[in-house]
Amino acid sequence: MDKVQNNKAWFLVLPVLVLVAFSAVIPLMTVVNYSVQDTFGNNVFFWEGLTWFQEVLTSRQVHSALGRQLMFSGIILAIQIPLGILIALCMPKKGVWASVCLVLMALPLLIPWNVVGTIWQILGRTDIGFLGYTLNSLGISWNYSRNPLHAWIIVVTMDVWHWTSLVALLAYAGLQSIPQAYYQAAKIDQASRWKVFRYIELPKMQGVLLIAILLRFMDSFMIYTEPFVVTGGGPGTATSFLSIDLVKMALGQFDLGPAAAFSIMYFLVILLVSWVFYTVMTNLDKAEGR
């Protein structure tokens, strides 16, 4: 007997679709409109076509910011993914201490981004900051506001402190989903700890680790508040990432056309990478299903 489809449930989704249209689609179309036109105010626009896109694509400033952004995202993923897995493996699986560890790991994720930046901005100062004062007391000439390497160290350390918990919690959830029968079989076969991790835990965590990589890449590629609060993109342009350059272009220089073209290409890059990760995750799920 054929089932009758009931499409009335779509009416429940309609308010969400309307909200998304006003909060996302309409602003996006406004940005697209600015990206192909120029204005001198008074709502007078001049057609420019793809001029702004060509200007952004050939801009050395954008190329440098993209290089710094990719380097930052690569460093973040290289540190946070293994560290998050290690923390998850060390966390207790049951009991009161498991709950305590979960709460402690979640605390950094609850702190607003601007507060995180302020904490590390004060912490790294040499006059009142514990970290900066201690390093200088040990004979290490520390000054993140003048030394590009020090600026990178504090920005990377700040992001690792803030977001490694997310990777650890996702990895912990993946570990908790592994049936005990796998561990019992490995114990009977006298498998080493490394083999248990290599052939049991790591394959079972692939799905959640891909989600962690996707989320961390997207967040790190769009990072703005924390480095802006700590270093303001400096010293010079050492920590001036794509988002900081975009804000300076749109608000500081008021170049709305190039900024709109820049933001569209920025959006498309993130969308493309997200689609690649989603495709890989879908293929993994299908492979595991077989």
Explain the overall architecture.
This protein is mostly helical and 290 residues long. The protein has a single domain, classed as MetI-like fold (Orthogonal Bundle). The protein has 13 helices and two strands. It has helices spanning 10-35, 51-57, 60-90, 96-110, 113-123, 130-137, 148-176, 180-188, 193-204, 206-221, 225-230, 242-252, 256-289; strands at residues 37-39, 45-47. A two-stranded antiparallel ribbon has the order 1-2. Strand 1 (37-39) and strand 2 form a beta hairpin. Helix 3 (60-90) crosses helix 7 (148-176), helix 3 (60-90) packs antiparallel against helix 10 (206-221) and helix 7 (148-176) runs antiparallel to helix 10 (206-221). It starts with 9 loop residues before the first helix and ends with a helix.
